[in-house]
Structure formats: C-alpha cells, structure tokens
Amino acid sequence: MNTLLTISGLGVFCLIAEIFNLRKLLIPVAIIGLLAILGLTISEFNIPSSHYNNMIVVNRFSVSFSSLFIVLTIFLIALSGDFYKEHQSKLSDYVAIKIFLLAGAVAMVSFGNLAMFFIGIEVLSISLYILAASKRLEVNSNEAGMKYFLLGSFASGIILFGICLIYGATGYFNIDEIFQLSQGAGIPVWFPIGLTLIIIGMLFKIAAAPFHFWAPDVYEGAPSITTALMSTLAKVVAMATLYKLIQGMVPAIPTIFENIIVVISVLTMSVGNLMALRQNNVKRMLAFSGISHAGFMLMALLSLSSAAGTLLYYTTAYALAGIAAFAVIILVTKNKDNEDIINFNGLGKTNPLMAAILTASLLSMAGIPIFSGFFAKFSLFTNTIESGYLFVVIAGVINSIVSIGYYFKLIIAMYTKDAAETPSATPFVYYFTAVIAIILNIAIGVFPNTILNLLSA
Amino acid sequence: MNNILNQIGIENYIFLSVLLFCIGVFGVLYRRNAIIVLMSIEIMLNAVNLLFVAFSTYHQDAEGQIFVFFSMAVAAAEVAVGLAILVSIFRNLGSIDIDNLKNLKG
Questions:
Q1: Which chain A residue's Cα is nearest to B10?
Q2: The whole model's pTM is what?
Q3: What's the burial of A322, exposed, middle or buried (CB within 10 Å: 0-12/13-18/19+)?
C-alpha cells in the first residue's frame, strides 16, 4: 500500500516542481524517487497484508509485478528527458502523467475490491489517452489518441457492465467474497455473463485477436515513447490484471472457457505474426509482434494455478527486450518523419553498439537461447503441456519460427545494406538505458530460476 | 423503495439497462459524428449506473450506490480528455467526422 501512496505523492511533487522552477532536476529526482519506491516495494515482499477493508491486497504477486512496473517506468522516464527536449515547458506534465499511470498500474495488480480495479484501469487508460495524443499539432497523433480513446472507453464500459452484473449476482465487490460465492450452487446466470464481459473488456486492453484492430494504428500514430510505454508497460499490466482477475474470482475455469482461451490464444499469435510479416513500418511491425506475444501470454491462463511465476518471467523478458528495442528505434527515427525499415539501413556500420542491442532484443523476442525470451517461451510451453494442451504448444512453436522471419528483416537491413546518411551524435542516455535493459534481459536469461521460482513458494 | 422494486421486478431493470447499453453500443459503432459517439459512450456508462443503483436496492446494500459515484467521476474525467482530443482534431482538420481519421492503415 505504501507503494501506491508514495507513487501518487511523487506524481504530485512532479507537478509542484514546475511551480518552483525545478525543471532541470525533475528527471533525476523522479528517477531517484522511483528507485526509493522500488526498494520500499521489495521490502514488503514477505509481508502479505491488506488495507482499507481489503481494498488493497499486498502479496507476493502484487509486489513482484509492481516492482516490474516501477523498473519499466524508470527506463521510460529516463528516455523521456531527451525525447521531450523541444517541449521543455511541458516536461513536468509528461513525467507526472507517467507517474500517475504507474499508480494506476500498481492499483490494478494489488486490488482486493472491484472498485479499486476499476479506478486503476481508468487511471491507466486516461493517462494513456493523453500521452497517445500528446503531439497535438500532428494529425497522426490526434488520430491515434482519438481511436485509442474511443476503443478504450468502449472497453471500459463493457468492463463496468461486467462488474455490475457480478455485483448483482453476488452482492459484493470484494473478490474474496465473490470467490467464496462463485463456488456455491445457485448463483444467478448473471455471474458468468458478467465475468465474460470483464474478460472481453480486458482482451480489448491487451489487444488479443478479434479485438486487436486498434493496436497497430494507435502504436503507429502515437509518439514513439508512448508506443514504447503502451507495448511494454500497458500490455504487461493488462495481462497481469487479467490473470489476477480470473484467478481471484473463480476456483477453476470451466472446460468450455478453456477451449475459448485456446482459440483466442492461437488466433492472436497467428494473426499477429502473419500481419507483421508484411509491415514496413517498424513501430507497426512491433505492434503486431506485441499482439502475437499477447497470444503467448494468454497461454498462462490455461495452467491457472501454477503459471504466475512463468507469466512474471515472460512479461519481464518481453518488456525488457521491448524497452531496449524502442530505445534504439527512438534514437534512429528521432529526426525522421516516418519509421520505415529503410531508416535502419547500415546501422551496423554507423553505430555498431546500438545495432547489436537492437539485434539482441529482437532475438530475445523471437526466442533464441541465451536471451531470456527463449527460457520464457520454454517454461510457458512446459506448463501448457503439463496441463494437457499440446495443440497450443505446437501452434506456439510454429509461430515462433514464423516470427523469426520479420525480426530478421530488420536485422538484415541493419547489417547488409549501406547507410544513406552520416549519423549524428548519440545522447548518452540512450546507450545507458538500452545497455542496462539488455543486460538485465540476458541476466535473467542466464539465471531464470531467480524469477521463475519467485511466486511458487 | 424496496416495495417499488418488488412490484416492478429486478428483471425489468436489467432489461432496461441492457437496452440502454445496446443503444450506446450501436451509437458508438454506427454514428460518425464524434460528439454523438461521446454521447453514446456516456449512455453506456449511465445505463450501468442505473443498474448499479437497482442492484444496490435489491441487495439492501449501499456499496453499489457508492460505486456509482466512482464511475461518474471517472466518466467525467474520461469525457474531458476525449473532448480535449476532439478540439485538437478540429483545429488540425476542421471537422469532427471520425471518417476523416484514416491516415493510419496497412
């Protein structure tokens, strides 16, 4: 609970800092503050507790996912200093919005009451609408913001209706009471309908197929740093919340629901990969790649009781690779008007370190050993086979092979083509962020058990 | 209050709310004017608020009515952001027809 309070306090501080003209200190102070909050959060790891009539529940699941979100936010705020260099007067707003977004994310994984869940998802979504439309003079950014706003609030309405039906069926918002009542016989039919509506709304938010159509447009039009935020932080938050919701409210998923999850998972990863093969815009390609990763993450729902650690590992590996990749993409496309693959030609010669980092992060997403993406997929597949869904794993393996196709398109452009122009100087912060993200990625790839076993004890 | 609910029946409240919710959904899907789309989203959220209050009386429990305050506050914040985005679209394009928003595709 201290996590949520201190994050909100830090957000308010960032807004006040603007009044006292502390703009130069803003980003270092925000990062130091977040590091302190990270320490505070980790110190609560072994002390499960609940606050305010079970509104907020602190347990290992919430602490470890909150720590992951805080780490991702630190990277994103570090990158935003240079990204918003031309917009100094709005810097504190952007940083504050990102910190409030983090508060929403933490509320979403540590809720014990559906009211808290709803507030969390709305704080996260409203911050994202603002960030997606934040380049207000560009039509593309406006369009992305509007599309995201319409689809997002549509999904929020569906989630709210689901919460309402669950309240009608049980008479409680507290998920512990709902869990108790959902086991008993004679629960009204509203309950499964409500649960389905909440799940549909969450599938909108994680951009799983048939509800994925907004994601590529929004990712392409939004400013690059917001795309990085949406494809790493927002996706991971929505996935963790969906897992917690289902695990918290029903003892076991009925078989028919599991079959639907199987269909959605396979459909999501196939649609994402096949569409990614024909993209020329890197942000759009990574949007489709993110859709296919959402399909992989949905597999965790098939082995609900044991997959928490695997889900944490997969999301960590995916998000760290995403941060490293986007650090390079933001750098390369900084002064360009589009993000086509052509901009990456010859990066291997002009800036070998950045090219190597981008290659490493793409290989991690594709699931090549040494990088943590491989072990993430490996343990996910193992879990899924153990719960008896061999078919999904076969589809997953085929999709991993297909995904190498489009990741290598970018890698080949970097190393075999010639650069069109001479590179400009690289700000240090890009190297710093990208190198740390990729080192963390490789470190958890070398020692996978540190994270895989975190939630099992 | 409970007496009225008994006479009308909770099912009818659910039917009314579902009907209003569907009006909102079809408004979002079929109308092209962004202001009307925003209004349709509001109808969706308010249909749910109505159902919350009905269930709250049905269960003799105040929690549902408190939730309505939360969802009203959230809906207000959401619409404020939506209108802000709409204003910047109008400044750039001179129109609020959402069919004009099709630069991004592929």
A1: A168
A2: 0.94
A3: buried
